[in-house]
């Protein structure tokens, strides 16, 4: 089945006209945007769904779910091999994936979600979050070629049929037209009913905003939980990159003030007791919200198990961060991290569930590399579940 065009070629060629604007308000007041707006909204409101899984077979064991931010899908061939062969990840029933490109020069203009689903023999639903007006940030700006479809989004994949697909648009934490990586749209959550032989449940792939405050991430989570409240009878598993960095990164000023505060708290103390445990203090409102609505996260994650590992010595990381932090900040960050050799790790990726119980190990799978480099800046997390009341 051929996937449909997103924007027709004429409208796609005109996207570059919008990149000259410095703010969303300025862009929205332009005549060019008013002409393109209905076409852009049509694409960003669309969901692509295809079935590559063979006929479902009976299942008796626990349901295995993997959540993974695959960093655009830059190393998609290696990611496919890992998902096929890595003992903890292979034979997953459901994949909750975030940061998947479609038609971006930085990933060879490939449709990352479709390629993964086709290679693994899984059904998929993909929702675009952003329509890109540039090639990306940092080293991505120097990618060969030009963007085609110019989309970046989120997906749910399953070995079993998917139905009742819903998408929840999340409010932006900052103006996405400010800075080098200009984009239209916002992050989204995508949810679908998985028609598993052991019972139907709802799977939610959720990516919260990194350039936002702790309060804004809480707001985004509330939007998702509000939508889930409309179908309270089904078991639910939510997984993804929630960007629980403990920082307010909605602006460079607030981010660096947050670093100053953590230095005063003691760098080693923060690295040991806050970055791995954001639910304890800085992000506690988000996690309290989950529990107040009947969602369990405590039993579905390993306490203190970090999923992103920041290295000040990594050129690509510094170039990307340098797109929005002033260069003088890097001296300060290096100074703050000098006792840890310029590295620190954070717990950003999570599961939460309602009507599900853990039925095996929960783990983050680290040290996944291709040609000596990590295949993603995040470690995947994996869990085995049973539906509550089902054997």
Provide an overview of this structure:
The chain is of the alpha+beta class and 391 residues long. It has eleven helices and 17 strands. A hairpin with a 2-residue loop joins strand 15 and strand 16. The longest helix has 15 residues, at 214-228.
In short:
The chain is of the alpha+beta class.
Helix-strand pattern: HHHEEHEHEEEEEEHEHHHEHHEEEEEE
Structural class: alpha+beta
Q: Which CATH-level-2 architecture of the domain at 46-244 and 349-387?
A: 4-Layer Sandwich
Terminal-residue CA separation: 37 Å
Give a quick account of the main beta sheet: strands, pairing sense, barrel closure. 8 strands, mixed
**What is the alpha-carbon Rg in Å?**
20 Å
Q: At the fourth CATH level, what is the homologous superfamily of the domain at 46-244 and 349-387?
A: Endonuclease/exonuclease/phosphatase
Question: Topology of this structure?
Answer:
Blueprint (H helix, E strand, L loop, with lengths): L8 H5 L10 H5 L2 H14 L3 E3 L12 E10 L3 H10 L8 E9 L9 H9 L2 E10 L18 E8 L3 E8 L13 E3 L2 E9 L2 E8 L7 H15 L7 E6 L10 H14 L1 H7 L10 H9 L15 E4 L3 H7 L6 H9 L6 E4 L2 E6 L1 E9 L4 E2 L2 E2 L6 E7 L4
Parallel strand pairs: 2-3, 9-10
Antiparallel strand pairs: 1-4, 2-17, 3-5, 4-5, 4-7, 6-8, 8-9, 10-13, 11-12, 14-17, 15-16
Helix pairs in contact: 4-5, 6-9
What labels describe this entry?
single chain, 391 residues, alpha+beta, Deoxyribonuclease I, Chain A, eight-stranded mixed sheet, 17 strands, 28% strand, globular
């Amino acid at each position: 089945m051929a996937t449909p065009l997103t924007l027709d070629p004429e409208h796609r060629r005109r996207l570059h006209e919008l990149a000259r604007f410095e703010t969303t308000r300025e862009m929205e007041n332009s005549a060019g945007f008013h002409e393109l707006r209905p076409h852009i909204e049509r694409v960003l409101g669309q969901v692509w769904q295809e079935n590559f899984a063979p006929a479902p077979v009976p299942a008796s064991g626990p349901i295995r779910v993997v959540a993974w931010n695959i960093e655009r899908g830059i190393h998609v061939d290696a990611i496919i091999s890992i998902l096929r062969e890595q003992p903890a990840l292979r034979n997953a029933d459901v994949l909750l994936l975030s940061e998947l490109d479609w038609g971006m020069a930085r990933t060879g203009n490939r449709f990352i979600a479709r390629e993964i689903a086709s290679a693994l023999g899984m059904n998929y639903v993909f929702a675009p979050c952003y329509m890109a007006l540039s090639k990306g940030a940092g080293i991505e700006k120097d990618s060969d070629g030009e963007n085609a479809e110019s989309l970046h989004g989120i997906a749910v994949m399953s070995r079993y049929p998917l139905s009742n697909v819903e998408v929840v648009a999340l409010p932006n934490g900052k103006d996405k037209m400010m800075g080098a990586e200009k984009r239209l749209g916002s992050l989204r959550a995508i949810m679908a009913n998985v028609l598993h032989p052991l019972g139907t449940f709802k799977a939610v792939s959720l990516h919260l905003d990194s350039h936002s405050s702790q309060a804004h991430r809480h707001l985004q989570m509330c939007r998702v939980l509000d939508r889930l409240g409309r179908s309270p009878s089904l078991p639910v598993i939510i997984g993804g990159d929630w960007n629980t960095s403990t920082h307010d990164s909605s602006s460079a000023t607030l981010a660096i003030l947050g670093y100053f505060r953590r230095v005063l708290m003691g760098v080693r103390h923060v690295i040991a007791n806050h970055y791995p445990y954001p639910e304890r203090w800085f992000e506690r409102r988000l996690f309290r919200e989950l529990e107040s609505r009947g969602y369990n996260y405590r039993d579905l994650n390993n306490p203190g198990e970090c999923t992103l590992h920041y290295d000040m010595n990594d050129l690509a990381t510094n170039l990307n961060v340098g797109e929005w932090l002033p260069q003088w900040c890097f001296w300060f960050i290096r100074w703050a991290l000098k006792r840890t050799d310029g590295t620190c790790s954070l717990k950003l990726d999570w599961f939460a569930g309602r009507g599900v119980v853990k039925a095996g190990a929960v783990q983050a799978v680290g040290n996944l590399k291709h040609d000596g480099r990590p295949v993603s800046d995040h470690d995947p997390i994996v869990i085995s579940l049973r539906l509550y009341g089902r054997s």
